[in-house]
Amino acid sequence: xxxxxxxxxxxxxxxxxxxxxxxxxxxxxxxxxxxxxxxxxxxxxxxxxxxxxxxxxxxxxxxxxxxxxxxxxxxxxxxxxxxxxxxxxxxxxxxxxxxxxxxxxxxxxxxxxxxxxxxxxxxxxxxxxxx
Length: 131
Prior knowledge:
The protein is built from six helices and three strands, in the order H-H-H-E-H-H-E-E-H. The protein is mainly α and 131 residues long. The chain folds into two domains: 11-53, no CATH class; 56-130, Arc Repressor Mutant, subunit A. The protein has a three-stranded antiparallel sheet with strand order 1-3-2. Helix 3 (59-70) crosses helix 6. It is elongated and about 60 Å long. The model has no long low-confidence stretch (mean pLDDT 92).
């Protein structure tokens, strides 16, 4: 992959300069910080996406697989996955459905709570996450 050439200006410094030039002095430092964090996040996500692309995994799907692989039994209640990943239950449910569709996890009834679902890592899922 070709290395990106340096930009002729520092875009974060220029953004702060613009905030100051337009009279937003009180907000300039905070906006520079937020912009910097957001750019760092974009760079990290791009790297993660590029790393996971050969496996046809999104970060969300990888995160669920890895969490299950780290668990003692290779399974966790859906509610525990939601709590540990700190994402909305609908997001985990949607991600789990894709992983089930691809045979990487199974969704089983919880052995002690008839209302709960258990997400279980399959052998294919374990092989995938370890690769």
